[in-house]
Automatic annotation (TrEMBL):
The keyword Disulfide bond does not apply. It is found in: Cell membrane. Keywords: Cell membrane, Membrane, Transmembrane, Transmembrane helix, Transport. Belongs to the AmiS/UreI family. It comes from Nonomuraea typhae. This is AmiS/UreI family transporter. Its main location: membrane. The chain crosses the membrane at residues 6-24, 31-52, 58-80, 87-104, 116-135, 142-165, 171-192. The lineage of its organism: Bacteria, Bacillati, Actinomycetota, Actinomycetes, Streptosporangiales. The keyword Methyltransferase does not apply. It is a multi-pass membrane protein.
């Protein structure tokens, strides 16, 4: 069930990236944020209720709420025309919590690709905090491109690997993912700094 939700996290990140890059209107993106946000709240609730009190299952499901609440917050904010500062500061909380989930996956679960994925999510939500919480408009375009890359590398592709039974928690896959992202984000940073700035949008 969680892997299905992960697929649609990729979808909403893709749409939000297009919004940050000025290709999708904020109110148009709000609907998908609400759909995926609701899914990411219902899914962990079902998993936890049916976990029979198993701590490992509950821990694994608990992190999904971070994203569900983010997308609901974004969707409602876009439709209501609210300030971005609330979701921006909530993003800082998500970024910090994601570090704990990264450590848990690395040292307890031994799922090394998802340890890297949680680190990448921490980086992305830190960018959301800077853009939306602190008003760093100069980072909006870069954040859009990072969001676009992460939609595929941290959500869509892992979700399909899980759904097709081809996912592996190996350290090799984690190293490949980390290497690709370091190169991609470094290149995007150089490109974004040479591109004229635009008005930021919600994440």
């Amino acid at each position: 069930m969680a892997s299905v939700g992960l697929l649609y996290v990729g979808a909403v990140l893709f749409v939000n990236a297009m919004m940050l890059l000025g290709k999708v209107d904020g109110r148009a993106a709000a609907i998908l944020n609400l759909f995926v946000g609701a899914l990411q709240v219902v899914t962990p609730t079902v998993i936890i209720v049916t976990a029979g009190g198993d701590p490992a299952t509950i821990m694994g499901a608990s992190g999904i709420y971070l994203f569900g609440f983010t997308y609901l917050y974004v969707g409602i904010g876009l439709l209501a025309g609210l300030s971005t500062t609330g979701v921006g500061w909530f993003s800082l909380f998500v970024a910090i919590a994601a570090l704990v989930y990264a450590a848990h996956n690395a040292f307890t679960v031994r799922d090394y690709p998802f340890a890297v994925i949680w680190l990448l999510w921490s980086f992305l939500w830190t960018l959301f905090f800077l853009v939306l919480g602190l008003g760093r408009e100069d980072l909006a375009r870069y954040t859009g491109w990072v969001t676009l890359v992460q939609a595929w590398l941290t959500a869509v592709i892992p979700a399909f690997l899980l759904l097709t039974g081809r996912y592996s928690p190996s350290a090799l896959y984690a190293l490949i993912l980390a290497g690709v992202c370091v190169v991609a984000f470094g290149g995007l940073w150089m490109t974004a700094r040479r591109t004229p700035e635009r008005e930021p949008s919600h994440a």
